[in-house]
Amino acid sequence: MPESKPRKKPAYTPPPTSKKEKANPAWLVPTMLTLMVVGLVWVVTTYVTRTEFPVPGIGNWNLAIGFVLMIAGFVLTTRWR
User: Fold this and answer.
1) Which residues in 13-49 are b (16+ Cβ under 10 Å) and which e?
2) What's residue 10's pLDDT?
3) What is the pLDDT along the chain (81 residues), one digit of tens a residue?
4) I need a surface site. Which of 1, 64, 72, 77 has the fewest CB within 10 A?
């Protein structure tokens, strides 16, 4: 009995990707670095002055402010490409 001809299957070619890599906004990196450095300086100043400065009278809340600034800088790193 004669054999049927096998179908020729084309080789798989993935669809072309049309995603363009977006650039960072110009404000992102300076803002990110500024927040992290200001937060670090805030926390160091709080420890060195025994919670008297940078804002007198709020005590350990100075640490919270410093850490919030640093965390905000780290959150911005997730948008960095």
Assistant:
1) eeeeeeeeeeeeeeeeeeebeebbebbeebbeebeee
2) 78
3) 777 777 777 788 888 887 777 889 999 999 999 999 999 999 999 999 998 899 999 999 999 999 999 999 999 999 988
4) 1
**Contact 69/35 with Cβ under 8 angstroms?**
yes
* Residues sharing a CB contact under 8 Å with residue 65, sequence separation 6 or more, in sequence order: 42, 55
Between the CA of residue 33 and those of 19, 21, 22, 53, 68, what are the distances in Å? 28, 22, 20, 22, 14
